[in-house]
Specification:
- The protein has 304 residues and is mostly helical.
- The protein has one domain: A middle domain of Talin 1 (Up-down Bundle), CATH 1.20.1420.
- It is built from 12 helices and 4 strands, in the order ααααβαβαααααβαβα.
- The mean pLDDT is 83.
Length: 304
């Protein structure tokens, strides 16, 4: 299979997996009596972040430490700038008051934690363990505080079929992302691109494609809760789980000179999202344009 055909096949799998994931998570939310936001914030967000986790662990095992931090930073910036921006252009997104009070502050906190690691220059197994404990506590708190949703009058899918749909969708997304990333990295290396830039761009964008495809499908269906929950949960998971698990293989460096500017950009985007959400608990199309412009400036900075 040529590189071009492999990339096209990967994109097709990502679109199909995104459609499956939106439908499966909607059925799972109805079956469990939870809101789509809570399901997307936990189950879906963790599932769509599986490619980032797989890529990070593979990079750590082969000693490519810069790919780990580049992947996490690049994916989180893409989630807030590119994916949320595009989704909001299709359909403005409402922000639940509970998300504004609890989840957005944690998004900012995890971005600041990432910046602190860059300033320190390394992540140790102990600090990684603390990140994992924070993730477990946040997930448990989110599920315990979730308000039950009254059952509708329509038929509800079985729990097994809903879980199978979500699991199958995540598998399709992971395979499609892997196919795309592997061939995109091959192209980038043929062009002589550095490893940390591959992590920030090619791998970050490739492993964020499950979020992109599922969020664009959700936007076309008018499911704003899915979009916001998926992206918030994915960014939180990327920092707490991916860095936390990667650190258990041993301490690894997080050089400020390579990633400091990108860390500051991520913090700025997180704060900008809080500002947009504070104005009427809604992210409008003009704010989506602003997020896309920020992402365009970020890519221009990387290309300079």
């Amino acid at each position: 299979m040529t590189l071009t055909l492999a990339i096209v096949a990967g994109l097709a799998l990502l679109y199909g997996g995104g459609e499956m994931l939106v439908r499966g998570s909607s059925g799972l939310a109805r079956r469990l009596g939870l809101s789509p936001f809570v399901v997307s914030l936990t189950v879906v967000a963790f599932g769509t972040s599986a490619p980032e986790l797989a890529a990070a662990l593979a990079a750590i095992l082969r000693g490519s430490e810069d790919l780990v931090m580049g992947n996490v930073l690049g994916s989180n910036v893409a989630n807030l700038g590119l994916i949320l921006g595009l989704s909001v252009l299709l359909r403005p997104v409402a922000v639940a008051p509970s998300a504004f009070r609890r989840d957005l502050p944690l998004l900012v906190l995890t971005s600041l934690i990432l910046l602190a690691f860059l300033a320190r220059g390394r992540i140790t197994p102990l600090t990684g363990l603390l990140l994992l404990i924070l993730l477990i506590g946040y997930t448990v708190l989110t599920l315990r505080n979730a308000q039950p949703v009254p059952a509708d009058d329509g038929p509800r899918p079985s729990l097994l079929s809903s879980l199978a749909a979500v699991t199958g969708a995540v598998a399709v997304l992971a395979f499609g992302a892997d196919l795309l990333v592997e061939n995109a990295v091959t192209l980038a290396r043929l062009w002589g691109v550095g490893e940390h830039l591959i992590g920030l761009t090619v791998i970050a964008l490739g492993t964020s494609l499950p979020e992109l495809s599922s969020c664009l499908v959700a936007a076309s269906r008018g499911d704003g809760d899915f979009i916001f929950g998926n992206l918030l949960g994915s960014n939180i998971f990327n920092v707490l789980a991916i860095l936390g698990l990667s650190a258990q293989a041993g301490p690894f460096r997080t050089p400020w000179q390579l990633f400091g500017a990108e860390g500051l950009i991520l913090v700025a985007l997180s704060l900008l999202l809080v500002l947009f959400s504070a104005t009427g608990l809604r992210i409008a199309r003009r704010e989506g344009v602003c997020l896309l412009a920020c992402y365009g400036g970020y890519l221009a900075y990387l290309a300079a």
